[in-house]
Amino acid sequence: MKEKKDNKVHIIGAGISGLVAAIQLEKLGYAPVIIEKDEAIGGRVQTDTIEGFQLDRGFQVLLEAYPKAKEYLDYEALELQALEAGALLFDHGKGKLFGDPLRSIRFLLPMIFSSDASLSDKIKTYRLKKKLGRKSIEDIFAHDEHTTLAYLEKQGFSKRIIENFFQPFFSGIYLEPHLSTSSRMFEFVYKMFGEGKAMIPKKGMGAIPLQLANQFNKTDIQLNCEVENISQNQITLKGGKTIETDFIIVATDPERLMKNYVSSLDWKSCDSLYFSVKERNIAKPIIGLSKRKDSLVNNIFYPTSIATESKGDGDLLSVTVVKKHDYTIDELIAQTTKELAEQFGIDDARFLKHYPIAQALPSMHNIQCSMEVGATMISEGIAIAGDHQLNGSINAAMTSGELAAQMAHKTMAGISHLV
Ligand SMILES: Cc1cc2nc3c(=O)[nH]c(=O)nc-3n(C[C@H](O)[C@H](O)[C@H](O)COP(=O)(O)OP(=O)(O)OC[C@H]3O[C@@H](n4cnc5c(N)ncnc54)[C@H](O)[C@@H]3O)c2cc1C
């Protein structure tokens, strides 16, 4: 009988799902090999240091209530820094506070007097939080799916709060401007926001994959190594080298790797731009949203409003563009700079870096929080992982990696018994 450690398992992709798959395989007694085409681990979750500032590749946050993140991450060691539970709604250079008074007393008066929502809206947001607090994640994902916009209308929210708050806030999360994303995702994210804070590690989001990889004892990671195609028990790398293996976990979209695999996967894109300013105009760590419908900029955030490991000169400003556009990079910077001045009152923004992210989040219907282990198997000896299997979140990426590893184990155990 073959020993577990002698079974070769290869994971393609060192994003969150691939890293969690490796942790899980180690727990089950294997010594997997991760093959990653990039020069670093993390996939969509990486942090660069430029001029001393920490730039996440796309503004993103870890919701501390994510159940899988609690299992796989040591929050204390990540030195998580909390964002405020709300937003500043900007127009004509001025921001108005909009947030949960139960989280922070400083939201109380602005919320009482806020003209961005009716009294009935304010009561409904509170009731929704209570309702979703009682609803399990499994129930949320078992429920009928609508667009988020239809869901909010059905809940009786006014056009005012939808246009002034929900639309800009959730467009930044979904990375699409129409709130056409599933109501299941809305309920899940709303529940997560209600049960914990939005966090960023002190060293940036890239600290998350690094902490996952630090848990490895037997996993080998091969960077700068691109897989060209796979078939049962064989991986072919770019350049022609082939690797024989017992099981493959594809922790990315397999479409280009497998001859007969047809993926129906669509991706949502965004532009992430970074600027430096002499001094930030928002003291607290809170997201700034544009209330203007014609605005290209969806949200701004100062990563230097939380404690960071590395510090640059002045403050760092992150700008996210969600809308589709035909601008060249120079036009995009010019338009963004103009909106920063006109809408957000920031007139000294100096451009630092642009990340065009073509495949930011999977565009999906019938999103799930989990799946049967067997459903990860896409071909003989090949399982799939990645957020695109469930829903576009770090939590889902972790769940999918865990399930694919269990599938590998199930198959290997079968092989072992047969040998
Ligand atoms: C701008 C932005 C904002 C986001 N905001 C949030 C947020 O606030 N909260 C949240 O929970 N989630 C957020 N997400 C989503 C989250 O980042 C993803 O769900 C998660 O990182 C997906 O991990 P993954 O392992 O599924 O995929 P990926 O991170 O895409 O990993 C796939 C890996 O496979 C590698 N690979 C691909 N092809 C090959 C090949 N042929 N050979 C070898 N290697 C290959 C890639 O290089 C990559 O490293 C955001 C994402 C983006 C981009």
Describe the model.
- With 419 residues, this protein is of the alpha+beta class.
- It has two domains: 4-45 and 206-265 and 366-418, FAD/NAD(P)-binding domain (3-Layer(bba) Sandwich); 48-201 and 267-363, Polyamine Oxidase, Chain A, domain 2, CATH 3.90.660.
- Mean pLDDT is 94; it is low at 415-419.
- Helix content is 32%, strand content 25%.
- The protein has a seven-stranded mixed beta sheet.
- It starts with 8 loop residues before the first strand and ends with a helix.
- Flavin-adenine dinucleotide (FAD) binds next to helix 1, strand 15, strand 19 and helix 12.
Comma- or semicolon-separated keywords:
419 residues, 2 domains, seven-stranded mixed beta sheet, 21 strands, 32% helix, disordered C terminus, binds flavin-adenine dinucleotide
Spatial strand arrangement across the major sheet: 8-7-16-17-18-15-19
Bound molecules: flavin-adenine dinucleotide
Average residue-wise pLDDT: 94
CATH topological fold name of the largest domain: Polyamine Oxidase, Chain A, domain 2
Total beta-strand segments: 21
Question: Architecture of the largest domain, CATH level 2?
Answer: Alpha-Beta Complex
Name the shape in a single word.
globular
Class of secondary structure makeup? alpha+beta
What is the alpha-carbon Rg in Å? 22 Å
Contiguous runs where pLDDT drops below 50 for at least 5 residues: 415-419
CATH classification, class level of the largest domain? Alpha Beta
Helix share, percent:
25-40%
> How much of the residues is beta strand, in percent?
15-25%
- Tally the structural domains: 2
- Number of helical elements: 12
Give the termini separation: 5 Å
Sheet bearing the most strands, described? 7 strands, mixed
